[in-house]
Amino acid sequence: MADRIGYFELFAADLKQSAQFYHELFDWQLTESGPEYMMIKIDGGIGGGLFSGNEPGERIHCYIEVADIEARLAQITAAGGTVVTGKTLISEKYGYYALFRDPAGNLLGLVSAN
Q1: Which domain holds residue 64?
Q2: Tell me, what CATH number does 78's domain have?
């Protein structure tokens, strides 16, 4: 079995704003787990957490698989995120990627076969 990401955490200056952002875009379920932490549940995916902090992390990138990168980037921009790198070909075998920042400044990626 290959190693897989088993959990991830994201910084959020405003927990409720970030929770709404991820719920609206990806239908992630977020529940409070104390005053400075929210648990993230993703159907069929890994779990994670959203925590209050002073600085967004950029050392670990999480890539979210989507059906249509360009459509999702438009949704991200409309929801208050910013596009860092638009849809870019990785290779014919591996498809495309894009990078974006959420409203808290976290850097994340999208991947898609098309």
Answers
A1: 7-112
A2: 3.10.180.10
